[in-house]
Amino acid sequence: MKLPKYKWPILLLSALLTACSTNEPIVKNQNVSLQLLQKGQDSELAYQLLESLTVEVGPRLPGSPADLQAVNWAVTQLNRLGFDRVYKEAVTVPVWHRGQAHADIVAPYPQPLVITALGGSIATPAEGITADIIRFTSLAALELASVDEVFGKIVFIDHKTERHINGQGYGQTVPGRSKGAVSAAKKGAVAILIRSIGTDSDRMPHTGMMRYQPDVKPIPAAALSNPDADLITAMLKRQQGVRIQLDLSPQDQGTATSYNVIAELTGSSKPEEIVLIGAHLDSWDEGTGALDDGAGVAIVTAAAKLIADLPTRPARTIRVVLFAAEEIGLVGAKQYVIDHQHELNLHYIAAESDFGAGSIYQLDVNVNPEVLTAVQHYMMPLADLGVNAGNNQARGAPDVSLFPALGVPVASLRQDGRDYFDYHHTPNDTLDKVDPISLKQNVAVWSQFTYLMAQSELPLRPIVEQD
Ligand SMILES: [Zn+2]
């Protein structure tokens, strides 16, 4: 159909008006987001919080006195920073005490080894365990072995963790740590030693959680530093029958009460809807938990504080959740899901910072595929800090990985983790490993992300569940 000439300007005008009215809030959001970018890059708050947590509390193993100190520290800091609401929710956590760990090669070339107990391991008998080593290059290789080969020996899983920007090497080797003891015990092994799940060459073993199975006899489990794993491997090349004496004295100390610590900025127009940004407050006991996950605690707290300082609150409620007892099996996150079952459908999106302090380079989401392009377009201000649009396959970091299966959209703000597994779960996880400039970039990106999500008009549900 041919339109009369005079109608063209009217159509053009109405199109322009429509465009302006829909874009106006987006442009406003993006302007605020730009302010947050600047403020985030100038803010010293995250570093101050991280220094305070690592110096004044330090290692904070779930259920330990220091864990409760960390809870008190968090409540004090969040109140001081002026959140609208600060509260804590009780979580029952298993308590494990590390004790001592010692190992020696007793034959053929006697020398001491550097090891650490894996989290949750039982102790050796008082006289220790002395047995020959049998080496496997992976958990999969151990699972293929016969009982005859393994019976009465100390299993050694010698699987190297590869360095990668997104840390994917960890996912490949960590099953050996978590499931190795059960697999070895099923074949009659008396203990298990694994090559540390770490990318460094320091003589510094990496701890981390391992599990038993009720119907399988528990055996002691420890990690060797990477150079110690190399040493045993080189010895085995010369001669089979490498014999090891192992002494571990960890203790299961029952349960204790810890807390998820929560702080909120109440939404101005949709207060019942929640943008959850989290991190975990607990840490392993050997370092000061600067990277894992003091950095995350500092980043999400400082990011929310920048939004708290804006003249008006964004539409949705911003909820900072500092989860308890992530390291020993997402215990706090599981409790959160139970405690907040009634409002999970009001969680607009959830994300967690738990990958150290390396710069963020990509935003992955897990949202309704029909709005993916619109979300990516809407989040474009993040590109100013070098953050690319990623994929729709985000699982979220550990604690929020429970959410997609419950219908809650999640995001992963991908950090450069090339050196993360050099220090992860070792005594070397300390404040000096944190680059203050990258930490600021994280705060700026998280505050932009959080603000934009709290203001977004996009329907993020239904999400596609990942398996
Ligand atoms: Zn962590």
What does this structure look like?
- The structure is a single chain.
- This protein has 12 helices and 16 strands.
- It has 467 residues and is α/β, with parallel strands linked by helices.
- α1 packs antiparallel against α12, α2 crosses α8 (290-308) and α8 (290-308) crosses α12.
- It starts with 6 loop residues before the first helix and ends in a 12-residue tail after the last helix.
- The chain binds zinc ion.
Q: Which secondary structure elements does this structure contain, and how are they paired or packed?
A:
Elements: H1 7-42, H2 45-56, H3 65-80, E1 85-97, E2 101-107, E3 111-113, E4 115-117, E5 129-136, H4 139-144, H5 147-150, E6 154-157, H6 168-186, E7 191-195, E8 221-224, H7 226-238, E9 243-248, E10 251-265, E11 270-280, H8 290-308, E12 316-323, H9 331-339, E13 347-352, E14 360-366, H10 372-378, E15 388-389, E16 410-415, H11 420-423, H12 436-455
The structure holds zinc ion.
Zinc ion is lined by residues 280, 292-293, 326, 354.
Rg is 25 Å
List the ligand species: zinc ion
> What structural class do the secondary elements suggest?
alpha/beta
- Stretches where pLDDT is under 50 for at least 5 consecutive residues are 1-21
Tell me the overall shape.
elongated
Beta-strand percent range: 15-25%
The total of helices stands at: 12
End-to-end distance:
51 Å
Can you give the mean pLDDT?
94
Helix content: 25-40%
Please outline the major beta sheet.
8 strands, mixed
Main-sheet strand order equals 1-10-12-11-13-16-14-15
Beta strand count: 16
Q: Please provide the ordered H/E string of secondary-structure elements.
A: HHHEEEEEHHEHEEHEEEHEHEEHEEHH
